[in-house]
Amino acid sequence: MGFTGLARWVNSPTDGLSIISDNIIKNHSGVFKEKWQLSVKSYRSLLSTPQSAVQIERSMCVLTMRENVFVLVEDPLAPTRADLLAGGAPSSYQPGHYRNTFLTLNPPGALEQLLEYLKACWVPVRQAAPSNAPRNRPQGSGQQLSVEGFIFAIGTDWLVRTGNVILSTGGTKGMLLEVAIQSLVADGTSELVSNLLTAVLSNIRGVTSVAVITSSDAQWEDVLWDREEEEKEKEQPDDPDPSEVIGSV
């Protein structure tokens, strides 16, 4: 089980990527592995319910990295697992979906094709739809945000990803740094990850960074709960008690 930490260098200069890369290689014995590229898009969809004239907004965040597309959909009208448990719903009841739904698609571009095929009413955030555009088609599919940089290895247990945050207009909006430890997590690992992130930035004069965020794989497993896997486990019969088996022989 690993541990990951994130930090953002808000006021990075134009040569910030070179500064960070040199710092990792010279001061932390980092070794270049490969380029780091990912893109982020966000969509929204407005729904009207018969019970209310107020429109409900659903959101969808899409992250593309290499050949995989990770999609997180939030529907305020759908229940959470905690809501069902607190409400005493029967265990056999399964809603069509929960408030947060996580999907993985492949290859890149598959989501846009799916939205086009379903004529889904999802519109990219911060992009106004033309007045003559069909309402049942997603408007625009260009990248809204991207990160471009490098991946370094420190020893055998650490990976450091660093890259420029590039807006859809082409401008740069700071830098993103990610530190991941691949070995088993123990007490104090969060502090180790935070300290490495701080060390990577500490040798730079006048740096302004956003608060460092750390999370373990166990926390991600709880967030990205797999309903289908849980249903399969429920369908499998429980192993019989060994004492019962012996008694029946």
Automatic annotation (TrEMBL):
Species the sequence originates in: Dendrothele bispora (strain CBS 962.96)
Ranges of biased composition (kind: Acidic residues): 227-242
Protein origin, superkingdom: Eukaryota
Protein name as annotated: Mediator complex subunit 20
Region (Disordered): 226-249
